[in-house]
Amino acid sequence: MAVTSRDPFTVTESQEFLVCQYSLLRDSLKTFWELWHKEYLQALAERSQIRSAKQQSAARQPHVGDVVLIQTDNTSRSNWPLGLIVKINSSADGSVRPVGVKTGKNKILDRSVNQLIPLEVVAEDTALVNTKKQPGTPTRIQPPRKAKKTFTR
């Protein structure tokens, strides 16, 4: 595409503008990741540790479909892999034991609940889903339009 006199930017101005926008975007992305690693992931881990330390009976138990961070010993918190709970092993007394977690590499790992940091994304409760599907009022059915009917002679 040729540069004409009506173009608002010349080639050098466009290049400078793009370089400036790229550096602003790169700086914003760097700031976002720093906040993510230092504050958000740390807050999730601390919240999970506080709940397990208090051993609250009202604390939400893990469910199939929950998204979690898998705590790994030799890696930093920002590099912990994400996982999806696919299987829950319960003991005879009802306590949750090792949980089957599917990783991004389609491997299913058995991990203790203490090694899982739940994210704020949770699976829907099946009881709530069933109540949503059964509305109290019947759905309204729209009658066909008269203009849509074809007339025959």
UniProtKB/TrEMBL annotation:
<feature type="compositionally biased region" description="Basic residues">
    <location>
        <begin position="143"/>
        <end position="153"/>
    </location>
</feature>
<dbReference type="Pfam" id="PF18701">
    <property type="entry name" value="DUF5641"/>
</dbReference>
<feature type="domain" description="DUF5641">
    <location>
        <begin position="22"/>
        <end position="119"/>
    </location>
</feature>
<protein>
    <submittedName>
        <fullName>DUF5641 domain-containing protein</fullName>
    </submittedName>
</protein>
<dbReference type="InterPro" id="IPR040676">
    <property type="entry name" value="DUF5641"/>
</dbReference>
<feature type="compositionally biased region" description="Polar residues">
    <location>
        <begin position="131"/>
        <end position="140"/>
    </location>
</feature>
<feature type="region of interest" description="Disordered">
    <location>
        <begin position="131"/>
        <end position="153"/>
    </location>
</feature>
